[in-house]
TrEMBL record:
Protein name as it appears in the record: Carboxymuconolactone decarboxylase family protein
UniProt xrefs under InterPro entries: ABM_dom, AhpD-like, CMD-like, Cupin_2, Dimeric_a/b-barrel, HNL-like_cupin, RmlC-like_jellyroll, RmlC_Cupin_sf
Origin organism lineage: Bacteria, Pseudomonadati, Bacteroidota, Chitinophagia, Chitinophagales
Pfam families assigned to the protein according to its UniProt record, in alphabetical order: ABM, CMD, Cupin_2
Positions of the ABM domain: 229-321
Length: 476
């Protein structure tokens, strides 16, 4: 359960290359190949070399297994192929030398491990090395000799990769602590490790972020927001409206949970012996998420259409007794019935289309495009563009202008030098030629608009810098 809204913050101790290495390592270890595709594009756009990424993924087989490593390599190859077809030429970086010609690779690996740990390393390693000599040999000869022997990544980069991967995996705290020590010996700072917890929060979970915090002696962060809202609605429905009410309630609950990240649960139930006695468990990540929910089209529609059906209503605010168990309950529910987390909710009557991979490098978050017109002689290209919560495009302009018509959810629009606007269903935005602007979804809602390209034969896009976190946060 991701009831805690995790805000993206500007990191200062970790540079962009280190942030990207950490993100791809954590996602590889967790097996999240869908998110990996986005991060790989960000890595390449940010200047990481192809061979640096390859080397990190090869190293990760030793920490999260061949299946996860090979899956990530497969995704990376697909990303490179897609970028090549678009004419994007990414830098290769240092050459990867496969063959290690050292005569005594065990000794080579032992010395590398001594340098990383800054402690003498016996042969064989006490404990596991005496019990399973082959494991000791593989560790020294292959991992710390063959893999760490490549200079495509520095020791510090390699330890960042390892720490990030282990931080994403439950049940490996002893190894994580050991590599935190090695990372510090290679130059990784306490401030960088603190910032790494935020990356784990963002890409994996607050639970795993807290595992890393505990290992580095930092205060664990709450899994749930302090102002989280839990409420039970006790509703009596006039019997003649019961079936109609159930249909409307089911539709509103599903839309709210799917579209609004801050709505953790709207779970309707009814008494078996008295079906017109309805109980709804409502959980909101924070008070602001509840206030936003009250202003959404789906809630307003529910309220207006069911008002005559309700005989009595009582709202009972609750306090959570045990947040840890609460998180575990939602985790169990996820395991009992796996939902498609990538499923796009119903947003409008217009088709959502396919993921906007051609222009993904100009967006933060996922967007989708569905062309609506095909008759070129009409000269009026129209497409439905959909943004996931938090997604927005870069600052940009159109030499021939553009018209936006909002058809679903809630979005943001801002022109350079002007205040941002919240835009909702029915709003029309007329964008003049060469006006620099950006638009996208709010942090808490999916968003769809029709995009009408004006003067298409001479209209060209000019893509500029991404919208900063500060600008986006202020716009919300």
């Amino acid at each position: 359960m991701n009831a805690q809204t995790i805000e993206k913050v500007t990191l200062k101790a970790l540079n962009s290359h280190q942030q990207n290495l950490a993100a791809l390592s954590a996602l590889t270890a967790s097996g999240n190949t869908e998110e990996l595709k986005i991060v790989f594009n960000a890595c390449l756009d940010g200047g990481l070399a192809i061979n640096e990424i390859k080397e990190a993924l090869v190293q990760l087989y030793a920490y999260c297994g061949f299946p996860r490593s090979l899956n990530a390599l497969g995704v990376f190859k697909t990303v490179l192929d897609e970028r090549a077809t678009k004419g994007i030429k990414d830098k290769e970086g240092k050459a990867i030398v496969v063959e290690n010609t050292t005569s005594d690779k065990y000794e080579q690996g032992r010395k590398v491990l001594e340098r990383l740990t800054q402690t003498p390393q016996k042969k064989p390693a006490p404990g596991f090395g005496e019990f399973a000599p082959r494991a000791d040999s593989f560790l020294k000869e292959h991992l710390f000799a063959d893999i760490f022997g490549s200079d495509v990544l520095s020791y510090s980069q390699r330890e960042l990769v390892t720490i990030s991967a282990l931080a994403a995996m439950p049940g490996v705290e002893p190894q994580l602590k050991a590599h935190i020590g090695m990372g510090k010996n290679t130059g990784i700072t306490d401030d960088q490790l603190k910032e790494l917890t935020l990356i784990i929060d963002q890409y994996i979970s607050r639970v795993q972020g807290n595992v890393l915090r505990k290992c580095i002696g930092e205060k664990e962060q709450p899994l749930l927001a302090n102002d989280m809202m839990v409420r039970i609605s006790e509703i009596e429905i006039i019997p003649e409206f019961l079936e109609q009410y159930r249909t409307i309630l089911k539709e509103e609950a599903a839309a709210s949970v799917n579209i609004e990240p801050g709505v953790v649960a709207i779970f309707p139930m009814f008494q078996r012996e008295a079906p017109n006695q309805v109980r709804i468990v409502e959980i909101y990540a924070e008070k602001s998420a509840y206030e936003h929910h009250l202003a959404t089209p789906q809630f307003k529609k529910y309220k207006e259409t069911t008002l005559k059906m309700v005989k009595s209503l009582k709202l009972v605010d609750m306090d959570v007794l045990d947040t840890q168990t609460m998180v575990a309950i939602f985790g169990k529910l996820k395991n009992i019935k796996m939902e498609d987390k990538n499923k796009i909710p119903f947003i409008s009557e217009f088709p959502t289309g396919n993921e906007n991979t051609d222009f993904a490098r100009y967006f933060i978050g996922k967007s989708y495009v569905a062309p609506l017109t095909s008759h070129k002689e009409l000269n009026v290209p129209i497409a439905n563009v959909t943004f996931e919560p938090g997604c927005r495009n870069n600052w940009h302009s159109h030499s021939g202008g553009q018209i936006l018509i909002v058809v679903g959810g809630e979005g943001l629009y801002q022109e350079r030098g002007k205040k941002p606007r919240h835009i909702r269903v029915g709003d029309i935005v007329e964008i003049g030629p060469n006006v620099e602007h950006w638009h996208g979804a709010t942090a808490n809602s999916w968003f769809s608009h029709l995009a009408i390209m004006c003067n298409p034969q001479a209209n060209e896009n000019k893509w500029l810098e991404p919208v900063s976190e500060d600008v986006y946060k202020e716009a919300n």
